[in-house]
Write a structure and sequence with these properties.
The complex is a heterodimer of chains A (113) and B (114). Helices cover 0% and strands 55% of the residues of chain A. Chain A is an all-beta fold. By secondary structure, chain B is an all-beta fold. In chain B, the strands form three sheets. In chain B, strands 2, 5, 6, 10, 11 and 12 form a six-stranded mixed β-sheet that branches. In chain B, strands 3-9-8-7 form a four-stranded antiparallel β-sheet, with no helix packed on it. Chain B has a two-stranded antiparallel ribbon with strand order 1-4. Chain B starts with a strand and ends with a strand. The chains are: A mainly beta (113), B mainly beta (114). At the A-B interface, β4, β5, β9 and β10 of A face β5, β6, β10 and β11 of B.
């Protein structure tokens, strides 16, 4: 069984569209995260979500909005997509907010044309 | 703020060669340090970790020692294999109200040739 799964794996869309990426973890973890990996492989945290508390990285545009319907899911919705949003987005989870080890999903490659 | 600097790649080695990937960090407080590995087309996997000064993390033949005096956490392996070809990320975490958000280095691509 996949511990952290993301859908879709690939997403190609045009500028200005709105899209969502879904993430699910079956590990029973309390905390979930979204990371962005750019074309140079540089990884940066976007959000952390724990028990309905959202911690936002201030550098993330407000076009990005995470939504958590329950503890096992953290979806990422992106409005008005821009070329610079093209990247690989990784979801991760950890057992608790204080846990050191994070488990990553396989990533979603987003291409904005 | 926190930051992690690691050597740029790619690093190309022959099988059974010795590997070192340098990593240095800047952090407020007392960070925990990690090495993550990303195999082609996959997500990141935790390779090893060290949570306090002088700790040595080890896994699958890889080792790294938390050196507070030099703010370093260099990754080493005595004899690499072709299957070790991947991108390696050094990272740190300091626990605060936001939880353990990881700060990553830029990644180092390792290519091992038969």
């Amino acid at each position: 069984d996949t511990a952290v799964s993301q859908t879709p794996k690939y997403l190609v869309t045009q500028m200005g569209n709105d899209k969502s990426i879904k993430c699910e973890q079956n590990l029973g973890h309390d905390t979930m995260y979204w990371y962005k990996q750019d074309s140079k492989k540089f990884l940066k945290i976007m959000f952390s979500y724990n028990n309905k508390e959202l911690i936002i990285n201030e550098t993330v545009p407000n076009r990005f909005s995470p939504k958590s319907p329950d503890k096992a899911h953290l979806n990422l919705h992106i409005n008005s997509l821009e070329l610079g949003d093209s990247a690989v987005y990784f979801c991760a989870s950890s057992q608790a907010r204080s846990s050191y080890e994070q488990y990553f999903g396989p990533g979603t490659r987003l291409t904005v044309t | 703020g926190n930051s992690v600097t690691q050597m740029e790649g790619p690093v190309t080695l022959s099988e059974e060669a010795f590997l070192t990937i340098n990593c240095t960090y800047t952090a407020t407080g007392y960070p925990s340090l990690f090495w993550y590995v990303q195999y082609p087309g996959e997500g990141l996997q935790l390779l090893l970790k060290a949570t306090k000064a002088d700790d040595k993390g080890s896994n699958k033949g890889f080792e790294a020692t938390y050196r507070k005096e030099t703010t370093s956490f260099h990754l080493e392996k005595g004899s690499v294999q072709v299957s070790d070809s991947a991108v390696y990320f050094c990272a740190l975490s300091t626990n605060n109200n936001a939880g353990n958000m990881l700060t990553f280095g830029g990644g180092t691509r390792l290519m091992v040739k038969p």
